[in-house]
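Researcher: Next entry in the queue.
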Amino acid sequence: MDINGKMTGKNVVSEALAASREYETQNEIDKNERPLFHVTPPVGWMNDPNGFSVYNGKVHLFYQYHPYSTEWGPMHWGHQVSVDLIRWEQLPVAIAPDTIYDAEGCFSGTAIEKDGEHVLIYTSVMKNPDGDGVLQNQSIAVGDGVTYKKIQNNPVVTGDMLPEGLSRADFRDPKAWLEDGRYYMAAGCVDQDNKGLVVLLSSADMESWTFESILARNESDLGGIWECPDFFKLDDHHVLLVSPTGMKAERYEFHNGNNSIYFVGEFDKGEKKFDGGEPLSLDYGTDFYAPQTTLLPDGRRIMIAWMQSWHNLWIPGGQKWQGMMTIPREISLKNGRLIQKPVREIEKYHANMVRYSDEVVSGRRSLEGISGRSLDVTFVITGNKYSRFTVNLAKGSGYYTRFIYDRENNIIEMDRTFAGFEKDVVCIRRACVKSAECYGDVKGKVDEQQEAQDSIKLRFILDRNSIELFVNDGAMTMSTAIYTPIEADGIELLCEGQAVVDVEKYDII
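Model: Structure for this entry, 509 residues:
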């Protein structure tokens, strides 16, 4: 039964869902006005990725979605699919807030296959009938990859199942998986001191759930609720991703307020507890939040995130869409740290290669054929006779976004001050590359061979409204949204001293 009291049958679409689908279809923005190969909403607002999964031979990506404006509003689940993680096809809105138990929004969640059906598990938000505020519970919708129906006994997980002292109002963002014949769910929550934690539940059938444990918790000063947890095995370790709200910055770490971090550690199956190491940043740019992963049939673990920040929201006047996803990234472990690389499928869309080898750069240089706003370009910078090396991207008519490698201090600085913003947003981020010298540990340490050769590798993925930097084959990343006019497509190099540079550029078509 929907919020209007009208009975809905198996193939009947609620009024709210039908309205959102119709609005989306009638108001879809031309693809030429959006990024070429990053997921964006067809119209309106997008935030967290949801339900990142493989079903019936396609990769499905759902997302937090408010089609009716470019501001956050009652959350729906938008839906797109891809066969190669680069080109995406828009599908109809999957679920809308159309029942009593999710009238305040269908918040983030997960997707998993069961008995040949695609099962969405999401946070259903409702007004608290016994007082002020809301209750956040977990509910299910089952479908065929296009159309989804909410089950009758929703919500399947409520806050009453949690131990005393854990929040019923901040209990959200489930991630589910199947292991040893049983379904598990990790979800974010807070305790009575407003410290974040991840709870673990299990089920034999995905409808009757049992609380198992507090999988991990904030034992120090790692912000408030741990949103959008993801928990998986990678190589011989377990990895926990969380996105804490309100974290305090520590030198070059955790500067986005709402950050995305990860822990690498071990999972005690008996106690059902995760023993993680030190928190590590997933990305050092201005725009990266709420990552989710999925496992492909070929064994690759793929991660995608919302390429935006709650503290840096702004769009140009007249733009009718807001929010985009990162390029999907292959992740692996090396020396206890996640390595992130753009999915290899991007290479199928490479065209117009331009290559330079052993190019000596001193002062300001532009190289013929090295320009564009939808491209994959790599610079390998070698030598010890320079102090700083700058790459200016999306340059023209006074606009540019610059990345500065300070070789002497082992720092990379990203500066989008002149990227087209008309609002006071955060524009500068810095990150330590060889952090054995910055922190006295191995966080972010570059490949030893590259260190010995005094070289650094900078790979940039540009897609009209965004730049993603992958340092030293993914040892560190920086992601940012830009709003520079598309005509600004120049690339300029600036070296203080003298360096030898190899360049390889491909347009993405």
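Model: The chain has two domains: 110-342, 349-508.
Researcher: Noted, moving on.
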